[in-house]
UniProtKB/TrEMBL annotation:
<protein>
    <recommendedName>
        <fullName>FAD assembly factor SdhE</fullName>
    </recommendedName>
</protein>
<comment type="similarity">
    <text>Belongs to the SdhE FAD assembly factor family.</text>
</comment>
<dbReference type="Pfam" id="PF03937">
    <property type="entry name" value="Sdh5"/>
</dbReference>
<keyword id="KW-0143">Chaperone</keyword>
<dbReference type="InterPro" id="IPR036714">
    <property type="entry name" value="SDH_sf"/>
</dbReference>
<dbReference type="GO" id="GO:0006099">
    <property type="term" value="P:tricarboxylic acid cycle"/>
</dbReference>
<dbReference type="InterPro" id="IPR005631">
    <property type="entry name" value="SDH"/>
</dbReference>
Length: 73
């Protein structure tokens, strides 16, 4: 998956940490959502994960998981 070498450094760090911590534990539905999420614009992803803008419903659970994983580390 393309969790590293994103468009902005912040998302490199966030998604690399998330993939190392959680990727092996995701079910097939969450993996499909994660793959779709990686196709989104990095600026949008950062705004969603940081809570600066609302996350689209489709990605709500996944972005919440990414954010909570980020805050645990």
């Amino acid at each position: 998956m393309r969790s590293i070498r994103r468009g902005i450094k912040e998302m490199d760090l966030i998604l690399t940490a998330y993939s190392e911590a959680r990727l092996a534990q995701l079910d097939d539905v969450m993996l499909d959502d994660y793959e779709a999420l990686l196709n989104e614009n990095d600026q949008d992803l950062y705004m969603w994960v940081s809570g600066q803008t609302p996350t689209p419903e489709r990605f709500s659970a996944l972005v919440g998981d990414i954010a909570s994983t980020l805050h645990r580390n």
